[in-house]
Write the structure tokens for this entry.
Amino acid sequence: MKVRVAFLSSPVVSANGSIKGCKRSLHWYRRGCGRNEGQRLARSLRLVISPDQRAADRPENASGDVIKSASSSSIGRRRRTKDPFNPEFKTAPQYEETYPSSEKVYREVVHEPTGELLRVPFRRIHLSNGEHLDVYDTSGPQGCNPHDGLPKLRRSWIERREQRKDPCFTQLYYARKGMITEEMLFAAVREGVDPEFVRQEVAAGRAIIPSNKRAPELEPMVIGPNFSVKVNANFGNSAVASNIEDEVEKLQWSVLWGADTVMDLSTGEHIPLVRNWILRNSPVPVGTVPIYEALDKVGGVVEDLTWEVFRDTVIEQAEAGVSYFTIHAGVRLAYIPLTARRLTGIVSRGGSIHAKWSMAHRKENFAYEHWDELCAIMRQYDVAFSIGDGLRPGCIHDANDEAQFAELKTQGELTRRAWAFDVQVMNEGPGHVPLHKIPENMEKQKKWCASEDGTMGPAPFYTLGPLVIDHAAGRDHIASCIGAANIAMHGTALLCYVTPKEHLGLPNADDVKEGLLAYRIAAHAANLANGLPGAQARDDAISKARFEFRWRDQFNLSLAPLDAKRHHDESLPAEAAKTAPFCSMCSYDFCSMRITQDIRKFAAENGYGVGPTTGMEAIHVDPHECESFVPGANDPNGTVD
């Protein structure tokens, strides 16, 4: 019998059914945790379930009556993972079904220093007129068994560096040395830019390529204000909802819908196992918040946290393959009183944990105190810092207050210290900010999170929205993507999505989809506003298809083709409607595009031409005869005030 284990940084197969390598996997609790923690972890690995959990899983008690409990009738009973080492994964979403008339294609390029052939993925959308459009693709390799994980794309790249015994493995280190790595070339092809430009941006700290050397599966991507705006998707289980199968399903849907990065924010059962199943099946960089697992190790008692427990958790997760860590080191003891007059206090989970620990012990934040040690760990794996905004505003009332900006200044200090270790950094931002206060956030981040001499930075900004109003519960993905588009237009590089479940509950796969689509719209709107080369090609293609009544092309060029088709077919399901010169909104007689085509046809048949000048001259209309005419720069007889 073979048992496949996903607890380590890669699956381990044991021929005799034993779990090989557990001693290595559990080094952190043997070194840093006490006897009670060891017993607790051992119980979890043996899948010992508490009586309360067993009761929650039973649909009926001994007398046959339905159990009335918070875990069953009141909030819906959770389906537990029967065997976390061998989950019963659902069928993966099908690429071709989600994106009709699309195929995955690869652009091949040779990394000249090593001779390595890189195959960079794109999604090719085939159009009915014989044309096609290639778009950025994050879906990863298709048809893989989740139990086996994804192919190890970067294995040979990483092995070469280890064989060279490089003193540091970060992309920032190589960029400063003038080296264009395979990751930089890969990301450059995806962005359609010169690889040297990517290297320069990384070397200057303005961009990062999250790429832990223990995550060979990921397809490299670049985050920075001078590249396309990226979108992050959060998921992860909680103590009352979800399981391993559901979280892997959310991952699969997230990358299919366009997530550039994902974060596993699990706080429930089997945190290391959930994380490792996600890591081995993710084609995009995976981030975490290590303080969550550290708190779980001490039984959820904040006061029992120690630097040693936190440090060992960071090492464990870096060894597993996490590519960026959110660490709330900017929540300093002196800043906590600044939140006293807030309407919602401290809303960051990690920030509140650090704040409570500091207040309980009357000590400085241990992550801040040991920042250089954290940098030394990150340096060895090439894990990027995502310096957390633990004091971000949790409502628009608290936006841009003293506590928020005090922490942002400290983020700048920590950024510069990390750069000294050649560690990649991005800064996290709010939160809840009304539209008129958004520019100030970007201005201060650009000023404070750069080197004092101006040669480095600013580091990429990574924001949660922000939400621009607070009373949109159930529609917070809309309220926040408005702020996201705005702040990205001002320079934010990575947007953390918000789902309809924000403030209400744990998102499911449908919520993940809605959040991602909203944020893909926000990111694209910012790309257009920032003049990103090629950003408008897809918009122009769908506009052309719309004007020519190529309905199938309209569906397939949209963000969610099946949704677009469903909305169209609700009123006009007949096959003939797919080529009809109208939709159910205007009908045939009132379709403006059909009428415009009639006008153009009439003009062509009567020799009027198609340009605005030739058309005017051909029909002998003096523009001054029009009531709405206003003299301007284009009128030779007019004046400009």
Observations:
- The chain has a mean pLDDT of 86.
- Residues 99-203 form one domain.
- The radius of gyration is 27 Å.
